[in-house]
Design a protein that fits this description.
Elements (H helix, E strand, L loop, with lengths): L3 E4 L2 E4 L2 H13 L5 H5 L4 H15 E2 L11 E6 L5 H10 L3 E2 L2 E7 L11 E3 L16 E4 L11 E6 L2 E7 H6 L3 E2 L1 H6 L1 E3 L9
Parallel strand pairs: 4-6, 4-7, 7-8, 8-9, 10-12
Antiparallel strand pairs: 1-2, 3-11, 5-6, 9-10
Length: 196
């Protein structure tokens, strides 16, 4: 599982020590420690690692893979977003559960029906218009859960932390592992906007 860091404005695969940081994120999905950010990892790279790891910590029904059984699709509408660029580098050549990881950039007219994870750029269309069965929507947009999204990657006290809207997750037919929920802030329909 490669982890990429920014060196001279270009991503490169890094050493075993830095891969261990990625494994730490993968196994514990902990709130990213300050030393990771101080070692030159950008917020975009850390968010991309979280998105990559959500593929392991969210459960999809087998129906979501009918049209592409050997692939797992990460999708976005905006290719120039730094998180999307970092995600593309991370998943290149990788597999999860014997499925090849694919990054698809969608046009505005393309529904995300064959996607498992959709990263919603803050400038993209409203997340409530992107609700589809078996689709995990993720964004760094403020109050994304209250706008209809499922997981917000929230910057909180100089650390990035997942914020999961549980009702939206269940409506999409998805479930999250206890490891992810343990470190996430959880929202429901009963929470008022910006209350957490």
């Amino acid at each position: 599982m490669p982890l990429l860091i920014n060196s001279s404005n270009q991503f490169r695969r890094y050493s075993v020590v830095n891969r261990a940081i990625c494994l730490l994120l993968g196994f514990y999905l902990t709130v990213v420690p300050a030393q990771v950010q101080s070692e030159g990892f950008s917020d975009s790279q850390i968010k991309a690692v979280y998105i990559y790891n959500f593929a392991n910590f969210i459960r999809w029904s087998s129906e979501s893979f009918i049209t592409h059984p050997g692939e797992f699709h990460f999708c976005a509408y905006e290719a120039k977003n730094e998180v999307v660029s970092a995600l593309g580098e991370i998943i290149s050549g990788e597999q999860i559960n014997d499925r090849q990881l694919v990054l698809r950039v969608l046009t505005e007219q393309t529904p995300p029906s064959d996607c498992q994870i959709l990263f919603v750029d803050p400038t993209s269309e409203e997340p409530q218009q992107l609700r589809h069965p078996n689709l995990l929507t993720v964004s760094d947009q403020q109050d994304f859960g209250h706008s209809g999204g499922i997981i917000e990657l929230k910057l909180q006290t100089n650390r990035i932390r997942p914020r999961v809207h549980m009702d939206h997750l269940h409506r999409a037919g998805l479930s999250a592992s206890s490891q992810l929920l343990r470190i996430s802030e959880r929202l429901t329909d009963n929470d008022s906007e910006g209350s957490q």
